[in-house]
Amino acid sequence: xxxxxxxxxxxxxxxxxxxxxxxxxxxxxxxxxxxxxxxxxxxxxxxxxxxxxxxxxxxxxxxxxxxxxxxxxxxxxxxxxxxxxxxxxxxxxxxxxxxxxxxxxxxxxxxxxxxxxxxxxxxxxxxxxxxxxxxxxxxxxxxxxxxxxxxxxxxxxxxxxxxxxxxxxxxxxxxxxxxxxxxxxxxxxxxxxxxxxxxxxxxxxxxxxxxxxxxxxxxxxxxxxxxxxxxxxxxxxxxxxxxxxxxxxxxxxxxxxxxxxxxxxxxxxxxxxxxxxxxxxxxxxxxxxxxxxxxxxxxxxxxxxxxxxxxxxxxxxxxxxxxxxxxxxxxxxxxxxxxxxxxxxxxxxxx
Amino acid sequence: xxxxxxxxxxxxxxxxxxxxxxxxxxxxxxxxxxxxxxxxxxxxxxxxxxxxxxxxxxxxxxxxxxxxxxxxxxxxxxxxxxxxxxxxxxxxxxxxxxxxxxxxxxxxxxxxxxxxxxxxxxxxxxxxxxxxxxxxxxxxxxxxxxxxxxxxxxxxxxxxxxxxxx
Amino acid sequence: xxxxxxxxxxxxxxxxxxxxxxxxxxxxxxxxxxxxxxxxxxxxxxxxxxxxxxxxxxxxxxxxxxxxxxxxxxxxxxxxxxxxxxxxxxxxxxxxxxxxxxxxxxxxxxxxxxxxxxxxxxxxxxxxxxxxxxxxxxxxxxxxxxxxxxxxxxxxxxxxxxxxxxxxxxxxxxxxxxxxxxxxxxxxxxxxxxxxxxxxxxxxxxxxxxxxxxxxxxxxxxxxxxxxxxxxxxxxxxxxxxxxxxxxxxxxxxxxxxxxxxxxxxxxxxxxxxxxxxxxxxxxxxxxxxxxxxxxxxxxxxxxxxxxxxxxxxxxxxxxxxxxxxxxxxxxxxxxxxxxxxxxxxxxxxxxxxxxxxxxxxxxxxxxxxxxxxxxxxxxxxxxxxxxxxxxx
Lengths: 351, 166, 393
Hints:
The structure holds three protein chains of three kinds. Chain A has helices at 11-45, 61-70, 82-100, 117-125, 127-138, 142-173, 178-187, 200-203, 205-218, 230-233, 244-268, 276-282, 290-314, 322-350. By secondary structure, chain A is mainly α.
C-alpha cells in the first residue's frame, strides 16, 4: 500500500484539497440520493413520475429547492433560545462531516487513516443527538419538545445495537482500522475459495441486519421516525425551522444516510475493493493507483444499493410507537447483537 | 417478533410498483404537456344558445348562488300571419354567468324550459383576474361549439334522447 | 357617539370575548400536565378539528374536542333555499362520498310528498349509494396508513379511487359533487357503455383491496400499532353509533323508518353485514376493508339486473312539499346520517335538521382517548374516521 504520487504536494495544498473533497464527498452524494430516492424512487413507488419540469427529468429540482430555501425569511420563534436554536443544525452537520473523515475511498484515497477508525466513527455519529436535542428544546414549542424527547430516548437506545453490530466485524478483521478491514475482506477466503474475497456480509449477516436497522433508527427514518412523526408532530424537532436552517437539517439527514451507507459498505461489503477475480481479470493489483480512481465509483455503487434499501423500507412501512421502538431495541436487537458477537468469537477461535 | 412474512410482502408490493411505473409508465398524466379528455357529460362550462332564450329568468331565479345576470326587454315582432296582432317577444340584452360564483350544480341547465343552456366539458378557462370570470353573452355563445352531442343511453332507459341545436 | 362608534366597539368586544373564551379553555386545563393543542391546523386531523389534550408525559389525561371551525351554517342556509338548491348544497357535507348525502334528504322529501321513485331509479340510486361508499372508504383505507406513517398506500387509494370517480363523472357530470338525486327519481339516465366500464373499475377496486391487505393489514408494524388501541366495547358503541364492536346493526337492513329499503333496494340483494368482535382500531380498519369488498359485490349484483323503465316519477315542475315532518336515516359511509325535514307547505323547508355521523362518532373521543399515548390518539382518530364537513356542517 505504499504508492506515491507522481507530483509532490505541500501539506497546505493537500489540506485544501481534502477540505474540498470532504464537501464533495458529503454534498454531492446527498444531492444525488435526494434526487434519486426522494424525488424519483418514491414517486415510482406511488405510480407517479415526480418532479419533471426543473431540468431534464427533474434533475435540477434540488437546485430549485435549495434556491427556494435560501431566499426564505429567517424566522425565530418568539421565545426561542436564539443561540441554541441557530447552532443546532450546524451541530448535526458537523457530526456528518466528521463522520466522512474516516471512510476510505481507495487504497490511498482517505482523508485520514486512523488506527481506531471504527471507534472514532461511532463516537462522532452520536454528536448529532446533541444537535437534535438542542433543536427540540430551543424551539420553545410543545411539538418540538415532544419530538426532541422522543429523539433523545430513541437515538441513545439505538447507539448500542449500532456499536455491537460492528464488534463482530472488528473481531473478524482483527483491527479497528477501516483500511485494514477492507484489506481483510480482499485477502480473506471463503472456505479456501479466494475469488470473491471475504465480504463480511456473508458471515456477519446478523450484524449487517442489525447495523442497517440501527442506521434507520439513528437517522430517525420510518419505521423509527417517532421524533419526526409527520402526521402527529408536524415535523418534530424540525417544526420551527424554516428556510436555510431547515435546508441544513435536510442535507444533514440525507448526507448522514449516505455516510452510514459508506460505512456499512466498508464494514460489510468490502468497501472500495472489487472482488479479486475481477482484478485478476483486469490484470491490476488490488492496491494499485488505479483503484484510487475506481474505488470511489465502487463505493458510490455500494452506497446507492444500501440507501435503496434504507429508503425502500422508509416509504413502505408505518411507524413504530415509541415504547414499541424501545422494546425492539433493548429486548431484541441488543441480545441478538450479543449473540452475534459470541458466535463470531467462537468461530474465529475455532477456525 | 416474527417480522418476516407481512413486512416482506409489503416490500414486495412497493417494489413491484416501482417496476411497473418504470416499465409501463405512471398512472399520472403530465399536464399540461399531455392532456386527458374529460367525459362528454363533465360539467366544465355552461354554453348559451341565444336563439332559444326568451329571458324568462327561470335559471337566474333557481341558481343557488345567484350568479346569472339577465336583462331583457320586450319587442314587437311582426305578426305570424297577415292581419294579426304584432306579438311581443323577449329580447335578450344581457346574459352573464359569473363563473367565480358558479357552483357547477346544473340547476340552470335543468330548469331551462326552452333548452337554451348546455353543459360543455371545457375546463381550461382560468383567468388571472377574477373579473374576467364573468362570461358575457357572446362568450357563452362561443362555448356552444364545444358542447358535445348527447350520448345514447344504456339499455332499458326510457328517456327521450335530446339534440343539441347548432 | 357617532354612527360608526358602536360598530367598532362591538367588533372589539367580540374579539376580546373570543380571546377570553380561548384562554378560559387553556386555563381550565392548565392545572397539571402539559396542554397540547392538536389542531385546528394539523396534518392528522382531516381538516380543522381542534383537540385540546392534557398530557402527563406522553399519556393523555383528558381530551376535549372542539368542533365548529368549519361550520358553514347548513341548517340555516337551507331555510332559504328551494329543494333542488338544497340538493346541491348538501352534496358538500361529506365531500368524499357525496352522493350518499343526498339520499336521506331525497327520501325524506319523497316520504312527505308521497311519491315513490320508479324501480329503475331506485336501483340506480342504490348503485350510486354503494359507489359513493366505495369512494369514501377506499380513501380511508389509504388515509389510515398515512396517519400511521406509511406514505405509499394513500397514493394507491387516490389512484384506484379515480376509477370510481370517473364512473360517477361519466353518469352525472361531477366527480365529487354529483347532484344527481331528484325527488321522484334521478336527474338523467346512464350513458351507453357505463355498465361495462363500471365493472372494470370494480375490478381495480378489488385489486386495491388485496394490495391494502398485503401492504397494511398484513404488516406487523400496523398490527402492533392498532391492535388493542382504542377499544370501544359493544354497549358503548351502541350508544354512540360506532361500528366494528361486535354490534350487528346496519340501517340498510334494519331501517325502522319506512320498512326495509324504503327507497333503496337492499332487500333484493344478497349481502351481509360485516362486524368484528374486538372493537379496536384494527377491527375498524378491517371491517371497512370488508365493507368495500361487500360494496363491490353489491354493485356487481346491481349492475347485472337494472330494471328497464322510466328514471323519474311524475313530479311537478315547481316542487312544493306539503306540510309535515319526516325523518329518514341511512347507513352512509361514515355512519348513520339522517335528515329531519319539517315543511310548512312552501317552496323551501321550514327546518332541516341534519344528523351527521361524524359528529356523533367524535363525541366518543373524550371517553376513548383517556389514558392513551399521543401516537395512539392519532391512531384512534384515524380509525374513527370523520370528515370535518360532516362534523361541522
